[in-house]
Request: fold
Amino acid sequence: MQKRTIKRKFDFFRNYFLIKPTLFSEPKINNASLSDFFFFDCRDGRDTKITIFNIYSQINPDKPTEDEVKIFIFDYNGKLNKKIDFTLKFNEYREIIFSKYNISNFGSFFIFHSTKNILDLERKGSYPSERGYVGYRNKDSLWNFVHGNRTCNYLSNSKIKTIMAYSLFETIYTPQVNFDDTNFFKLIFNNPLNRKIKINIKCFNLTNEIVSSVKEEIISYGTKIIAFKNKEIKYLKIYSRLMFCRPLIYKEYKKDFDIFHA
Amino acid sequence: MFYYFFLNSQSDHLKSSINIVNHAPHSLCDSDLSNLHINYFYSNGEKWKFNYFGEIKKNELININKDDLGIKVKHKSIFVCLSEKKNIDDDYLQNSYKLEKIFHPPMRSNIKIFNNYSAASYQGEIPAIFLKKKLSLVSCSPMIQKMKGIKNFFYLVNLSNSPEIKEFKVEVLNIEKQKISELICTTNTVNFFDIEKINKTNDLVYIFKSSEYGGIPLYFSVNDDYTNMSIEHTHPPVEHVVFGDRSYFQRKKKTYWFENI
Reply:
């Protein structure tokens, strides 16, 4: 236990000063359950859904157990909007369609799992992690699926904590995709930290010149959608002290949209 | 090094492309960048057929449409390799995992299926280590869509370091482990199936499994007039846990699904 505490502190300093950083550090409690911070969008006829499995059936299926699921839904201002709790039996799953829960506007949500049974997780030094497949759609269209963006938070005594690394210095994240196949795209960021983050986006053309630049702040647990209408943009770079500042990318086409993580 | 692939389609309404990107995904691995070469290749069952596409300079980004490669390869399963060596051969493929640089996060490509109205893509790659490993498959998917007028397809992308094209079985089960269907896939192929028959049951989740071979499972849905589409892969079982002995839990899940009732 003491070894783990020392490692966590060591990882914190490595990340803070960018000395062989780890990007993530282990949770502070042994029985933590982790979640991605998933985006949802219910504006103007749009809808979002996710199918939640009994995660312990996926991890330790030889020890059938119930899964107590807690969903924390935050609005785009980082305010806790709704909590949904339910229990899943062994191999059970539940489809959550956001519009059916009177959720409007947009924001982000966590899904935390817990069980009363003792499984092999603690003994093996591992933690369950909800990575989910989220479907997005415009009114009457099919669901456009994308899996979770990054494992980032866990629940400790009803408080949400993060494993994401934050540094004293800015690092740069470059999505490995071109943007010149669309006239309109959006970057969707959410902030899993309990502090405000700043991001700076620089967009480049084919000859590596900056054609657009945006600076934004995102409050704790908040979500920001940043839209770009510039056919000249070939690629972009994201500067932030949040070390793995990876957005969801939304590209609009003539009759539909594509959404994927960077 | 990393490998990529084109998504084949049975429809002339859909085209396939990949973005090859020679940017470091993160500034922490900027120093690892160098000019690289793009080769594309396929297997004829006995030998790999390699073709040189061109060089990609440091910090450059190239989009390749499968149609650009010519009519001769239109119906073949085409894989793409980004390498430091200009001309690759059988020997390179067999040993490429030894040459793999450690990028963190990995060098990914935007693998896309598209037409004039819409597109669906995901960020993916085939890590070189996959070519050497004996893979198996357990993919639990909630992404098969039931709405009227929506067609669903299953991709399984398999690539190994031997050019042999061998058949293997993929079974489709429901969550109660009841067998619904069986698909015959081949190695070194971008396998592609219309799963309309499977989708006639009331299940919302299907499990695609094979103890013989594995690959990257992808679920593609498209509407009747090809204007609305979705594609996404499922995670390998190891992604359900973080830290510690993750492969222990992957083995547990695979053992459960490979056992008969």
